[in-house]
Amino acid sequence: MEITAKMIQELRAATSAGMLDCRKALVEADGNFQKAVDWLREKGMATAAKRSDRSASNGAVELYSHGGGRVGVMVEVNCETDFVARSEAFRSFAHEVALQIAASAPQYVSEADIPESVLAHEAEIARKRAAEEGKAAVADRIVEGRLNKFKDEVCLMRQAYIRDDSLTIEKLLHQTIASTGENLIIRRFSRWELGEASGSQAE
Which of 120, 126, 134, 168 stands 20 to 30 A from 56 (CA)? Predict the structure, then answer.
């Protein structure tokens, strides 16, 4: 059975497991969603699986201005209850996400949000570069490496956390889920920089 990006995204939303782990789980389960969830839980990867069926409709829209107004960020982070939305841990997390967006300028929340056309374009550039450098024999490996690097740069969840590069934003999210005891979602963001023709938006 073909494992699609949509299937991976849905499993990731339900379990908060990593994208690659979700893909592997779906492959192991032959595309069966519930079996894939069970596989992740058995491996200890579904850290938020027991909370994933709860609605995350509370939260906050965090606003951040940087560099004397040269960069502005608005990010929506959701949680389950108003109690957690008002907690210091949640507010701190939302603020850190806004800082990350201001500093690192991601274009998408997660890997699943990248259009296939964008990935195809990046792959073509990498393949042509490999050919020009006389590395056609290992082009597939070069393309894979280039795409992974591209995803690390443009996906908020895959970016290294600016305060601790041993963490990604996805891992920071999982830590906050564990500490608050609620399902949390980085829903969407917008980033504006003075002089840009248009701001970047992701949801």
Answer: 168
